[in-house]
Amino acid sequence: MGRDAILVSCNFFICRVEEIPSSRGCQYHREDLDKKKPVELKMDQALLVIHNELPGTNLTVYWNFDRCYHCLLQVLATVSQSRKAGRPGIAAVAVSTQHGSILQLNNTAEDKEVCRLEYKFGEFGNYSLLVKHVRDGVSEIACDLVVNKEPVDSNLPVGIAFLVGMVLAIVVSFLRFLLSLEDFQNWISKAINSRETDRLINSELGSPSRASDPQPEAWRRSAAPLRLRCVDTFRGMALILMVFVNYGGGKYWYFKHSSWNGLTVADLVFPWFVFIMGTSIFLSMTSILQRGCSKFRLLGKIAWRSFLLICIGIFVVNPNYCLGPLSWEKARIPGVLQRLGATYFVVAVLELLFAKPVPETCASERSCFSLLDITASWPQWLFVLILEGVWLALTFFLPVPGCPTGYLGPGGIGDGGRYRNCTGGAAGYVDRLLLGDQHLYQHPSSAVLYHTEVAYDPEGILGTINSIVMAFLGVQAGKILLYYKDQTRGILIRFAAWGCLLGLVSVALTKASENEGFIPVNKNLWSISYVTTLSSLAFLILLALYPVVDVKGLWTGAPFFYPGMNSILVYVGHEVFANYFPFQWKLGDQQSHKEHLVQNMVATALWVLIAFALYKKKVFWKI
Predict the structure, then answer these.
(1) Which parts of the sequence belong to the Heparan-alpha-glucosaminide N-acetyltransferase catalytic domain (predicted)?
(2) How many other CB atoms are found less than 10 A from the CB of residue 326?
């Protein structure tokens, strides 16, 4: 927004305010503003013009987001005193519109609060804050906020995109239904071809090739389980949402990671991917062992695959080679693929060590109706519970220099600014101690609201413990699907039970609040409440997908099914080619949510099309 546009808006406001008794015209206001540097509004900003009509009183304006928990207010502007009646001091500033704002005006000389208000500004809106005495001779002060120019509806493009997507989904579904009626034989042929393709692939991380090593008769007695499309569909949903938010999500705040406690859309995708990876580990491992692969050989494959994931993360995904060659002094060690590789190794080895054949007669045995899927895995559960105990002990009892023991906050200006360098408490301390500041993520999401200055990595060491717990809960989902494969009702009951149980645990840990609980939901920390909350949602999503996709066949899982079958290729590809055309191009207006949204949706859709083409060509990247 240029100078002329701002002056027109201010003139419009000031002339409107002539109706307010304390305002006596607008010509001199324009002159005052002409002397000031114009404010250019960017995305997610509004213009606020502060009018100080208090004679002999300079004002300091403090500001912060209402979502910034227990934060120090930051100086927004200083407004000089009114020089004479009808000629107020004026300051024009840009304020953020992403969240609600807290404004506090203090008498600069006495540092005494004059007034305080909370308001949610709208993008590109124009507002005036009038600070004045209620009437002459009265010491009471009023702060009136006036809307000069209505803001734009920045969320409208998201609503339109959602409606268009829904319409397209309905149209495609209807066309598929018509085609199935008119050409039933063709439809059957396509379904058969699809099943043939499914048999070529194992897990989303690839799987070892067929082996002829001798195995106990119990393993060779069972046929390999059929591939479950709901698992690939869920993985694809998480992956495509991950691609979209990584590309920018239209620059909307709710498509970015939460600054500290709480959840946004972006915070959902990675844990769901970890959860469904756990499900695939059990399904794939059971299939491989039934086909005759030895445990020793499978252990080597697991170790090699984990090593490759970690290396791809460190040397391919993390560095930005457009900025120059890799510098080991500043190379980031943690990362998404590194977290996946470490989690995959621990969970896969754990399941391999205690692997047992899935009972064929489970459907007819009364004991299988209850807790066989849990009791048969008691060693794994014991290990995971001990691991979680380690996380709790380190998080709440490890002494951190200069920080309170058990601190879970963001540091920076949070908690009144008392613990500026304590971001993440024990989690941040362990990473900085073992890996070093230079090898951690340098731009954590906590810097957005809390102005943190220390390096903090959301994929750090302590958080990996809870990602292992998340993957193990995914393993539990896989066991339910196999142990009760002939009992659709039993599967759905268990999914619902796990979803409700984990949800209740989350409520107890968080006290159903964002910041006041024992252990808040926090993606940066990968807190245990974050794991239970997202696992609860994952079980409920499978509760919906399994009957619709696999039992009734009402939905094939398209288009999410295709990227779900080639997830590593899509993830690595979208990271490597993020800055190249056609995934990114120069926008006409860099401050437009609409243009960013279109670009990010096109880039995401291209990866869906690439995955679809590769699926049809039977090309799958297995590592």
Answers:
(1) 227-356
(2) 12
CB within 8 Å of 201: residues ≥ 6 apart: 227, 565, 620, 622
Contact 242, 567 (CB under 8 A): no
Q: How many angstroms separate the CA atoms of 102 and 570, rounded? A: 42
pTM of the predicted structure, to 2 decimals: 0.86
Per the CB < 8 A criterion, the answer to whether 542 and 230 are in contact is yes
Q: What is the mean pLDDT of residues 343-354?
A: 95
Residue whose C-alpha is closest to residue 127's, from 135, 136, 117: 117
**Cα–Cα distance, 124 to 112 (Å, whole number):** 31
> How far is it, in rounded angstroms, from Cα 595 to Cα 401?
46
Name the amino acid, one letter, at 177.
F
Residue 96 main-chain phi, psi, to 5 deg: -75, 145
Catalytic residue among 29, 51, 70, 257: 257
> Distance (Å, rounded) from C-alpha 254 to C-alpha 198?
35
Strands, E, within 361-449: which ranges?
none
In angstroms, rounded to a whole number, what is the distance separating the alpha carbons of residues 555 and 566?
A: 19
- The answer to whether 451 is a known catalytic residue is no
Per-residue pLDDT band for 469 (boundaries 50, 70, 90) equals very high
- CA atoms within 13 A of residue 515's CA, in its CB half-sphere: 13
Confidence band, pLDDT 50/70/90 cuts, at residue 221:
very low
Question: Which ranges in 484-592 belong to alpha helices (H)?
Answer: 488-510, 528-545, 561-565, 567-576
pLDDT in tens, 267-303: 999 999 999 999 999 999 998 988 888 899 999 999 9
Count other C-beta atoms under 10 Å from residue 295's C-beta.
15
Residue 323: partners with Cβ closer than 8 Å, 6 or more residues away? none
CB hemisphere CA count around 524 (13 angstroms): 29
Backbone phi, psi, residue 425, to 5° = 55, -130
